[in-house]
Design a protein that fits this description.
By secondary structure, this protein is an alpha+beta fold. Helices cover 17% and strands 29% of the residues. It has 3 domains: 6-318, alpha-galactosidase from lactobacil brevis (Beta-galactosidase, Chain A, domain 5); 323-633, Alpha-Beta Barrel (TIM Barrel); 637-737, Golgi alpha-mannosidase II (Immunoglobulin-like, Sandwich). The strands form 8 sheets. Strands 6, 7, 8, 9, 11, 12, 14, 15, 19 and 20 form a 10-stranded antiparallel beta sheet that branches. An 8-stranded parallel beta barrel has the order 21-22-23-26-27-28-29-30. Strands 5, 10, 13, 16, 17 and 18 form a 6-stranded antiparallel beta sheet that branches. The longest helix has 19 residues, at 498-516. The protein is globular, with a radius of gyration of 27 Å. The mean pLDDT is 96. Bound molecules: (2R,3S,4R,5S)-2-(hydroxymethyl)piperidine-3,4,5-triol. The site of (2R,3S,4R,5S)-2-(hydroxymethyl)piperidine-3,4,5-triol (DGJ) has 11 residues, from loops.
């Protein structure tokens, strides 16, 4: 293990430092954990200057009698409410006497090599890491809180979480249990966050930090497409390659909240963790409660730098390691090819089509189980429909494998339709509140995954199918937000724990299944990207990022998600045209290229649609197969983004191939000439453009740029690279690096 990354001074200054950042705080004489520095790496981090001045503030109250020391202008590591800080606190609750004032002060610390995994929750893996554990205590409430900080040798990510321990004889009720708080100094910041809805996920919004509190959150039971669990606080005017950024995300898939608050003295507090709204945890004596993990990135050089830090970390420390360097199979998915109208013959015919177009896998999506002919019935009854799949799934899987294809299947395990055997047998297994009619979403109800018997049932049903041994892939869907969140399995006074207990149950089920079937490629889906987060991606190597298969719609979704997630964890297929979500007509090429840098690519087209464009589809599926290795572990960059153009670059992990995809959205006459400045190339090497053998030096491509094809509505001349006339044009450049 190289030099230690965590140092502590005699007067209780704590520093976490690697080559990418330093994070420093101290225990003040009053015992408050006072934040000192988060930013670029410091060579002597224990000697940072505190920018906090002890001064008399009019109106402010002094902390526990300390002269000129009040908490409302003190940057803190884990603030509470009621003792002179009026900003939103990281921790809040109530003790058995009804007292809601908490005051956590420093008690002790320890340093552990590597990283403890969180109990019952997914968290980033360790390896070349160290963890600082600070114990705070509130002697009055007999509450202890461990703050865990993990730093890695090679990553720009700091992992944080909090662990609550009731050391007393009385119950403590916890209402706020944020995973981390970050009090940053006054500066001209902007917030970047992502919002959306079904089929329009990952829209990026940038706003100035208001002089108040800004919150993104979810109370839907999933992390949701409405707000991604992500916030970046950026130097105003940050671009792809300029600007300091502090970004935060969570390894959690349920109700979360992230807030940015500019206090009265202009410093900025970022909180991240479980949404305190409608949350309440009863911590019995001697019991422990762990928050989900928050991840923080400091990026000194703009959004590209930030994305690279996230991508490297997610690939190495979050994604299931057994798929790390594994090229993803190309596939034909039955959903937009046939929807619910599937049967064994049709699936076998589509499997033959899959072979003809050269893909690796047939995925049987929704519609294969007992009585499922539309979305009104059968969720919960995970047995093959006897009429349409008479020989059963294991036999079908074997037939498909015998053709030389892999076989994948769809489940939506967390749901049940009222019209199902499962619901008839166990009506109390759903999330519900006595006396209220449960709201339906897509005609379905949510199973109560806070109950062990439900987890056991689901494991049994899924295991029955997977144990045939011929399943290579599972699409794990989840198609509604939660309502009437209550559980017959929990006592009256624990009902506000149900949302979080649901997540614990879900993670338990996923852990058990993925442990038993480590070779099965699980794909996370929730009506597309309604639960696309690092909690789910801890168990599943890839996710269906959106139901929006129109390429123009998809560009902004993939582009938005790429700020955080590497494209290795995304799946995208060529869907039908006219598109089923927005009616747009586009070429096979543009439909393929919009997802060309995602790791998992394929088609979801009917027999007729395949026949109509067979040669092109064969061409692009061959390209997908030929580039499948490259689309794992490489470097993705956004080069151009404006209202009418997108240009992305991708460099394979071995640096041998550079791909540039250019999209021109709406055609117009007399357009300007455009060029893209490539990035991350070897300046002294030559790069050969595969389409015509022309050669360019790396420095020229980066500093002089590459001309983008011209969309001409008029005359086409020789020696100019044109794209198809009209709207939604695209072009893929492939450069091969020549030996130096
Ligand atoms: C929603 C998913 O996002 C789709 O891809 C498809 O699997 C349907 N559910 C099936 O019901």
């Amino acid at each position: 293990m190289p030099a230690t990354m965590i140092t502590v001074s005699k007067d209780k200054v704590f520093a976490l430092s690697n080559s990418k950042f330093s994070y420093v705080f101290r225990a003040s004489p009053e015992g408050i954990l006072e934040h000192l520095h988060y930013g670029g790496p410091l060579s002597d981090p224990l000697n940072v200057v505190s920018h906090h001045i002890r001064t008399q503030r009019e109106v402010a109250s002094t902390f526990q009698g300390g002269r000129y020391f009040n908490l409302s202008d003190t940057p803190q590591e884990y603030p509470s409410f009621g003792t002179s800080d009026y900003r939103f606190p990281a921790v809040h609750g109530r003790n058995a006497d009804g007292n809601t004032v908490f005051s956590l002060t420093y008690k002790s610390y320890s340093i552990v090599k590597d990283k403890p995994r969180l109990k019952k929750l997914p968290s980033a893996r360790g390896g070349d890491s160290e963890t600082l554990i600070i114990t705070l205590h509130d002697p009055l409430h007999k509450l202890e809180v461990d703050l865990l900080y993990t730093i890695y040798q090679d990553y720009g990510v700091l992992a944080r979480s909090a662990r609550f321990k009731n050391k007393g004889e009385q119950e403590i009720q916890i209402q706020h249990a944020f995973s981390s708080a970050l009090d940053l100094p006054q500066a001209d910041y902007e917030i970047m966050h992502m919002h959306g809805t079904w089929a329009r996920e990952f829209n990026v919004e940038r706003i100035d930090v208001p002089k108040s509190r800004f919150v993104v959150d979810s109370a839907r039971g999933t992390s949701s497409a409405a707000h991604s669990p992500f916030i970046a606080l950026m130097e105003k005017g940050t671009t792809e390659d300029h600007g300091r950024i502090y970004a935060t995300t969570l390894v959690y898939s349920g109700n979360f909240a992230m807030s940015v608050e500019r206090g009265e003295f202009e410093d900025v507090r970022v909180l991240a963790g479980i949404n305190p709204f409608n949350f309440h945890w009863r911590l019995k004596p001697s019991k422990t409660f762990c928050t989900p993990e928050a991840l923080h990135v400091f990026a000194p050089n703009g959004l590209r730098n930030m994305s690279h830090l996230w991508h490297d970390f997610i690939r190495e420390k979050i994604s299931p390691p057994q798929f790390k360097n594994i090229a993803r199979p190309t596939y034909l998915n039955t959903w937009e090819a046939a929807y619910f109208d599937v049967n064994e013959d049709k699936v076998l015919t589509l499997a033959d089509k899959a072979l003809e177009i050269g893909v690796d896998m047939l995925v049987l999506d929704d519609g294969w189980f007992e009585g499922r002919r539309d979305d009104t019935s059968s969720l919960g009854d995970w047995r093959a429909d006897k009429d349409r799949f008479a020989s059963g799934i294991p036999a079908l899987a074997a037939k498909i494998k015998a053709k030389g294809l892999k076989f994948g299947i769809w489940f939506e395990p967390e749901m049940v339709n009222p019209k199902s055997q499962l619901y008839q047998d166990h009506p109390d297994w759903i999330l519900h509140v006595p006396g209220r009619t449960p709201s339906l979403g897509r005609n379905q109800l949510t199973l109560d995954l806070s109950r062990d018997e439900v987890i056991d049932y689901l494991f049994g049903q899924i295991d029955d199918i997977l144990s045939c041994g011929d399943i290579d892939y599972v699409k794990w869907d989840m198609n509604r937000n939660m309502t009437e969140v209550g559980s017959a399995g929990q006592s009256r006074n624990r009902q506000r724990e149900v949302s979080h207990r649901y997540m614990i149950g879900l993670y338990k089920l996923l852990k058990k299944l993925t442990k038993k079937y480590p070779h099965i490629l699980f794909e996370n889906c929730a009506s597309g990207g309604n639960r696309f987060d690092l909690g789910m991606l801890s168990y599943m190597p890839q996710g269906w990022i959106s139901d929006m298969c129109d390429p123009i719609g998809r560009l902004s979704i993939i582009g938005g998600a790429s700020y955080i997630y590497p494209l290795d964890v995304m799946a995208a297929y060529i869907g039908p045209s006219p598109n089923h979500q927005n009616g747009r007509i586009s070429s096979v090429q543009t439909r393929f290229l919009a997802g060309v840098f995602t790791a998992a690519r394929g088609v979801s087209l009917s027999e007729a649609e395949i026949e109509a464009h067979k040669d092109e589809i064969i061409h692009f599926m061959k390209l997908a197969k030929d580039t499948a290795d490259d689309m794992i572990g490489g470097r993705f960059n956004r080069l151009i983004l404006n209202h009418n153009e997108v240009c992305w670059q991708y460099i394979s992990a071995d640096n041998s191939t550079v791909y540039v995809a250019y999209f021109h959205i709406l055609s117009a006459p007399n357009l300007p000439f455009r060029r893209a400045y490539l990035t991350g190339l070897d300046p002294h090497c030559e790069y050969m453009l595969v389409e015509d053998g022309s050669r360019y030096r790396g420095d020229a491509l980066m500093h002089n740029g590459m001309p983008m094809p011209y969309v001409s509505t008029g005359h086409v001349r020789e020696n100019t690279r044109y794209m198809a006339k009209g709207d939604f044009s695209s072009h893929l450049f492939i450069f091969k690096k020549a030996a130096p």
